[in-house]
Amino acid sequence: MTIQDIKKTAETKMGKSIEAFKNELHKIRTGRAHPGLLDQVHVDYYGSAVPISQVANVTLLDARTISVQPWEKGMGAKIEKAIRESDLGLNPSSQGDLLRVPMPALTEERRKELTKVVRHAGEDAKIAVRAVRREANEHLKKLLKDKEVSEDDERRAQDEVQRLTDRVIAEIDKLVQGKEAEVLAV
Questions:
Q1: CB under 8 Å to 9, separation ≥6 — which residues?
Q2: Which stretches are annotated as coiled coil (predicted)?
Q3: pLDDT at 29 over 70
């Protein structure tokens, strides 16, 4: 493995950490409704747990209401139960085949709790990025120990990995601030 390979691998893994963090942020709800909110809710479908989007059409009726239209007749009650039992705090109402999922307004207390959740997710993402940095630095030290690179090259590569880490952590901080502002906006 060369220095270039190590840096490329670190950059790829850090990029994946940011993508995972962005997906985590999408799951944290704000006052507005979006169909992706129900992606983490699974429903029992012939003995296996599948996401709601695989057994129903999930769309927006308006800014605060999600509509769920099951593809099979008997799935409505199961989907309603799954949404009610999820930790999202949603209360769907059934209207024939159609399920309406109104988004309750967030209280000030709940908004503050959500900002803590956002910060915690951001810290987890930073920990993942730092683990990638540590792994890259260990590979660089191994190359130096095996005398495949000079000390100067190893030091230069470590500095580049550190700059990459700093850039990725700054991006995570920016994402956290943006999501907090979105959650706190009334």
A1: 136
A2: 133-167
A3: no
